[in-house]
Amino acid sequence: MLLTQIDHVAIAVHDLEAAIDYHARAFGAEVCHREVVEQDGVEEAMVRVGESYLQLTTGTRTDSPISQFLVKRGEGIHHVGYRVDDCAEALAAIVAAGGRAIDEAPRPGSRGTTVAFVHPRGSFGTLIELVEEPR
Q1: Do residues 27 and 50 lie in contact, with contact meaning Cβ atoms separated by under 8 Å?
Q2: Rounded to two decimals, what is the model's pTM?
Q3: Which residue, of 21, 36, 43, 63, has the fewest CB within 10 Å?
Q4: What protein family does this chain belong to (predicted)?
Q5: Residue 19 exposed, middle or buried by CB count within 10 Å (0-12, 13-18, 19+)
Q6: Domain parsing of the chain, residue ranges
Q7: Domain 3-132 carries which CATH code?
Q8: 74, exposed or middle or buried, with CB in 10 Å at 0-12, 13-18, 19+?
Q9: What pLDDT digit, counting tens, does each position of 47-94 carry?
Q10: Cα(127)–Cα(113) distance, integer angstroms
Q11: Among the listed residues 135, 107, 126, 91, the one whose alpha carbon sits nearest the alpha carbon of residue 10
């Protein structure tokens, strides 16, 4: 089994501060990590839920995937992050099984992780992010 756990569920939001405030008031959630990922044009706030995270994310520029998602679909679940021990191995397995890689090779992600995205057209309508924790 290449998947070790659900790393995170990403929710795209228009107003990151409002989303953080809502989760704090509704669930007592506290942000444990916050980062702007310039390469992807996103800002994220991570809330730990057990061994996983809820990733609240918004676009920082109009051409970012999150901004485009928000325009087309509105707020809501954007993708699911699957934690793996070896991102390259998991990506190769997905492609071999008929999946469609967005990232041809793993790349740096937030929190010092290594990531690769898999297109929803090859994974039953769900955008998947493979996440390898730093060693």
Answers
A1: no
A2: 0.92
A3: 63
A4: Belongs to the methylmalonyl-CoA epimerase family.
A5: buried
A6: 3-132
A7: 3.10.180.10
A8: exposed
A9: 999 999 999 999 999 999 999 999 999 999 999 999 999 999 999 999
A10: 18
A11: 126
